[in-house]
Amino acid sequence: MTLSKWRVAATAALGLSFAGAAHAGQPSTVNQWNQALLQAISVRSTPPTIASRALAVTHTCMFDAWAAYNVGARGTQFGTHLRRPRSEHTLDNKRAAVSHAAYRAAIDLFPSEKPRFEALLRKFGHRPDLANDDPRTPAGIANIACGEVLEARHRDGSNQLGEHGGVPYGDTTGYTPVNSETELRDPNRWQPLRVPTYDGKSTYVQKFLTPQWGWIKPFALRPYHSYGLKAPPKYGSAEYAAETRELVELSEKLTDRQKVIAEYWANGPFSVTPPGHWNMFAQWVSKRDRIGLDGDVKLFFALNNAMMDAGIFAWRSKVELDYVRPITAVRTLYKGQQIRAWGGYGKGTRTIAGEHWTPYQPPYAITPPFAECVSGHSTFSAAASEVLRRFTRSDRFGYSVTVPAGQSAAEPGLVPARDTTLAWTTFSQAADEAGMSRRWGGIHFSIGDLEGRRVGRVIGQQAWHKAHSHFGGAPHGRRGR
């Protein structure tokens, strides 16, 4: 599959359009800005850590600007100090403040996408007004509130501006892998691989993605060690052998449906990423429940700060544990042996040399460029499902998607053999499937998945409680779009 086709498939496979047309009616102003952010994330092939932070920062700016026009709501930076008189608490003022805040945050986070964001701002009837600091106007409120959020986030340790090393979001820790692409010095530790580029014309050696992420400022996350993360098994132990054998057996028995699930949740390059996937679900839920602007401000604020925290925890554990990926473990443990496993494009299950085992992934995304434990997908998804469950006061989801025949990126034209429908009754079920998908895809061991789910649920609960404390006595929403 060519790069251009992969970019189309990466979005289409979600079964959700950026327009979120699952239900009739115009999406709220917040919902439409969220769609624009996801488009930018996809176009820029933004990594999941950076994407989760960008979504959290932008929706925090929107929340803080909106809070000035609500009785009871409390902004994250100024508390109630920006609150305007009740006579100004109109839907038009809320919409304007939200749009100006979203615009200011978005161009700070995605400067190359400024034309996209300016077009949306003008669609809503506004013009860029970044110099306005008059709190008597929605633009002024937005600039004051968002400016403070951005100033704090520029110092959060993410290295967004590239002050350290000159590269935006570049490593600030000096992380160096123990293993190289040609030498495995420690079979317990992560090994970077030499992988092909998307166009297949060259190769490159993986570099650990944003190793500093585990130390950036969180929203509600508690100290890392308080989550009691279970350590993964060591090379040479029976547990290590069992974890590795399970991945081989899953590969051997892969069904067409499991392949579809593995790819549906993959959210690799040029996708909206795992955090974006759950934002698209939230867009759908917003329209399903007719949540409206007030509710959307709160929903996306809570959801994205929870996923930012999930990403921080997951990446801290990835660096702290620096654990081996399944592709390295299987090839090491079964070197010189014949095993039954997926044999590659169109080959199905066959007998292969253990050192040639490969995950069910396209060659250019064969395994992520960072360590294994815990699974980011599992942690993001569990945290997101917890927020959606608590916000809607129900675990009911009721969403389904049909993946067209031949949609696969790993086996284009072959998988699925026929149109395949995936459906989730509850948010929890969807989150569990997202975690399991990475085991069917050969990306994670069971411990990385299950521990990610466990901790992710706790992170979601904690983020929800903190976000809810900012809602105050503000109504739940459904007041206009």
Question: Overview of this structure, please?
Answer:
The protein is mostly helical. It has one domain: Vanadium-containing Chloroperoxidase, domain 2 (Orthogonal Bundle), CATH 1.10.606.20. Helices cover 47% and strands 6% of the residues. The strands form 3 sheets. The protein has a two-stranded antiparallel sheet. A two-stranded antiparallel sheet has the order 3-4. A hairpin with a 6-residue loop joins strand 3 (338-342) and strand 4 (349-353). Helix 3 crosses helix 9. It is globular, with a radius of gyration of 22 Å. 52% of the residues are buried. Residues 58-192 form the DUF6851 domain.
Which keywords apply here?
single chain, 481 residues, mainly alpha, Vanadium-containing Chloroperoxidase, domain 2, two-stranded antiparallel sheet, 47% helix, disordered N terminus
In brief:
It comes from Cognatilysobacter bugurensis. This protein is mostly helical and 481 residues long.
